[in-house]
Write a structure and sequence with these properties.
heterodimer, A: mainly alpha, MetI-like fold, 9 helices, elongated, B: alpha/beta, Rossmann fold, CBS-domain, 2 domains, 4-stranded antiparallel β-sheet, 14 helices, 16 strands, 31% helix, disordered N terminus
Chain lengths: 228, 373
């Protein structure tokens, strides 16, 4: 059996697993990004006044704490984190998605905070001077100007997630990990190398689809005045 | 031209009948955690339609004072009145929409087109789209930018000077009676800055806003200000018209701040049109009169080209230099130094000689024409 024969005879399964892989990543990145951007927006509105206790202090605390916590999560080996969630959420899709979501948090949060806090102070100052309230400033000035940086964070986290999602197969999560794990566990047996090869190649295809998707999103959502 | 007075060169322009647009009463700012007030017990009134320049060294409280007027910084004590209305406790965001605000480099929103940048305040005030667009075009005209070229551009496509013009247009958008300007021309090259200042004065002649203007540049303060407020560590040291600040500093601090160049700076306050000049003759028949009147050779269009006779001097050795009547004594001195000439012919718009200013007049005391000072 050559590789093409293998592909054609297993086409249905391969397409199904690729779609599943794509969806798991999409859902996890979607959830993680929503959480991180929302948290980032909530805690990056102002600079705390060093001489006075205010909401900004609380926000800054949550911001720095959140960054440390999500960074720590990112360093936990993925294999271990999937296993650690098993007693609580069992085998299957739920665990796969929860763990994957956890891994998307840090990059997006870091980029959201960086994007929002590095907006030109002169721009924010003039917005305030013209009568922009805090909320209006955050949503119509800070967020659009930080958006390219935030979007880049989401893009990077997506690529990382595609490979981490493979490990999800150990908790019977859906996706190309099933193919890879199967191939690896039977290495030397019939078609085992083809399975590993297919799992790898189709991960690349999923990544390519996401890259095209993000190129379009970038084009559509980054305001013309700040496009590079 | 025969009547002269012995008054000083420039009189104090009295704002007769003008009401005070901005009034600060006992205003004080103490930043939390600090003992010394950034601004202490400040009383100041800015008459309607005047430009007041706030000047002083870093940390003197000039910017804090400016930002307390639109309550970007909340005063710790005191009252702020705008056009007679106490605004110390009204909603800050609402208040700021009714006050123009310009900062260094314009602070334009990079993701908004030029027209949208100008339209931000009208939009918040609920104007309809058409009116906002028409207003943006009108203001682009006013600040000397062609609307069809600029309205759809983005800030990064504009030079610093152009951005600053848009910044001024944006502040004027909702036609606020009061404008606050925080070193608007501070980050701009000297040549462009000079032109922007001239344009700014032109615009002010049209719009007649009440303006508080922070600067650290004394030259700018003298050039633009109807009045100058000199600050030192939270205190207003002197609040007067530019000439008084330069000639009669209230104390050592002001006199140190104004520095040694005061006498020279003052020259730019004296307009040639207001001066009593020496007569000049351009007629052939006057050539032999030898009565102490300078005589110039003119070309076909009546413009003086060289000296024919100078009282008590060798006419051939002195080059003829001219300065427009609309200029200041500063310009005249500049021209004289540049041309190595001890006197300058003052010419009108058509280039015809109107009079002569001698180098010696500068040290001998300048005389102003009656009714023009």
């Amino acid at each position: 059996m050559n590789y093409l024969d293998y592909l054609t005879s297993n086409a249905q399964q391969i397409v199904f697993l690729t779609q599943a892989h794509f969806l798991v990543v999409l859902i996890a990145v979607g959830l993680g990004s929503a959480i991180s951007v929302a948290l980032g927006l909530a805690v990056s509105t102002g600079e705390p006044d060093p001489r006075r206790f205010s909401f900004d202090w609380f926000a800054a605390g949550v911001r720095e704490g959140g960054l440390v916590f999500t960074a720590a999560l990112l360093t936990v080996p993925s294999l271990a984190l999937y296993a650690l969630f098993l007693p609580f959420t069992g085998l299957g899709v739920t665990t796969a998605i929860i763990v994957l979501t956890v891994y998307t948090l840090y990059t997006v949060l870091r980029n959201t905070v960086a994007g929002l806090t590095t907006v030109d102070r002169a721009v924010l100052e003039s917005a305030r001077g013209l009568g922009y309230g805090r909320m209006r400033r955050l949503l119509t000035i800070q967020l659009p100007l930080a958006w390219p940086v935030i979007l880049n964070g989401i893009r990077v986290t997506t690529l990382i997630s595609i490979s981490i999602a493979v490990v999800g197969a150990v908790v019977q999560g859906p996706g190309l990990g099933i193919l890879l794990l199967n191939g690896i566990s039977r290495i030397g047996a019939a078609n085992s190398f083809y399975q590993v090869l297919t799992g790898t190649l189709f991960c690349l295809i999923v990544a390519a689809v996401f890259e095209i998707f993000f190129a379009i999103v970038q084009r559509l959502t980054i305001p013309r005045g700040i496009r590079v | 031209m025969s009547e002269t007075t012995d008054q000083p060169v420039v009189e104090t322009p009295e704002g007769a009948g003008k009401s005070d647009m901005i009034v600060l009463e006992g205003v004080e700012k103490i930043y939390p955690g600090s003992d010394a007030p950034a601004v202490s017990q400040l009383d100041m009134a800015i008459p309607q339609g005047e430009i007041v320049m706030l000047i002083g060294p870093s940390g003197c409280g000039k910017t804090t004072t400016l930002k307390m007027i639109n309550r970007l910084i909340e005063p710790t004590a005191g009252r702020i009145l705008l056009d007679g209305k106490d605004v110390t406790h009204v909603n800050g965001d609402q208040l700021r929409r009714e006050i123009g605000y310009v900062i260094q480099q314009g602070g334009l929103f990079p993701h908004f087109s030029i027209a949208d940048n100008i339209g931000v305040v009208p939009k918040m005030l609920g104007w309809d789209k058409q009116r906002i667009r028409a207003r943006a075009d009108e203001l682009l005209h006013l600040v000397g930018l062609e609307p069809s070229t600029f309205r759809d551009r983005y800030p990064r496509q504009l030079s610093g000077g152009q951005q600053q013009r848009v910044g001024v247009a944006r502040a004027l958008a909702a036609d606020p009676p009061v404008m606050l300007m925080d070193e608007p021309f501070g980050a701009i090259d000297p040549i462009t800055r000079d032109r922007l200042q001239d344009e700014f004065l032109d615009i002010q002649r049209t719009v007649g806003k009440t303006i508080a203007f922070v600067t650290h540049d004394l030259q700018e303060a003298v050039k633009l200000g109807d009045k100058i407020a000199v600050f030192a560590t939270g205190k207003l040291e002197q609040y007067d018209d530019p000439d008084t600040i330069l000639t009669r500093p209230a104390n050592d601090f002001v006199s140190d701040f104004v520095g040694g160049g005061a006498a020279v700076r003052r020259l730019s306050l004296v307009e040639l049109a207001h001066l009593e000049l020496h007569p000049i003759e351009t007629d052939e028949k006057a050539a032999d009169s030898r009565n102490g009147v300078a005589v110039a050779e003119v070309d076909g269009s009546g413009k003086p080209v060289s000296w024919r006779h100078l009282p008590g001097g060798d006419a051939a050795a002195v080059p003829l230099v001219t300065v427009p009547l609309s200029g200041t004594v500063y310009d005249a001195v500049d021209v004289m130094l540049d041309g190595s000439a001890s006197l300058v012919a003052v010419v009108d718009e058509e280039g015809r000689a109107q009079g002569v200013l001698h180098w010696n007049d500068l040290v001998g005391g300048l005389r102003t024409r009656k009714g023009h000072a």
